[in-house]
Write the structure tokens for this entry.
Amino acid sequence: MKSRMFLLLSLVLGLQVLRAEPPTADALIAQAGKRAVAEKKSVYIHFGASWCGWCKRHEAFLDRPDIKPVFEKYFVPLKLVVQESDGKKDLENPGSDAWLKKLGGPAGLPFSAFVDAEGGLIANSKSALQGDVPAGNIGHPMTKEEIDWFVAMMKKAAPSMSADDLQTIESALRAQKR
């Protein structure tokens, strides 16, 4: 009987360790900020959720072997999990909703922002006006206008980005298929 109780207690404790709460948004942003200072980069925060197909597409794009090294030459990427469904709230980074609002969201997911090392907004994925109408969140850039805005965001966040590196990312975005 004692061995069963010990086994049950071990199992419960083990499951609690496996379900440890994700790091806070504040801690992750502070860590990314330190790295950004050391490497003289901006931080790229992208907000997403497990249910969001466009979020997964954006993450896959950023992880492409032809994109990742170019993007990370200028930016420290950071994903924050927000707006999870009720059954998956434990995946969220505590405080990420507050950062989403601080940086201009919510406006749908994925939402992204380039920030300085202190977390100050440089540019976010809410695009400029199209005529007299606010265009809204570009999410993962697919259309000409969305890609144009993402390129403008990168230029603003990394003014020293080489034309070749910028072209690598822009060309890959424009070559995407829906």
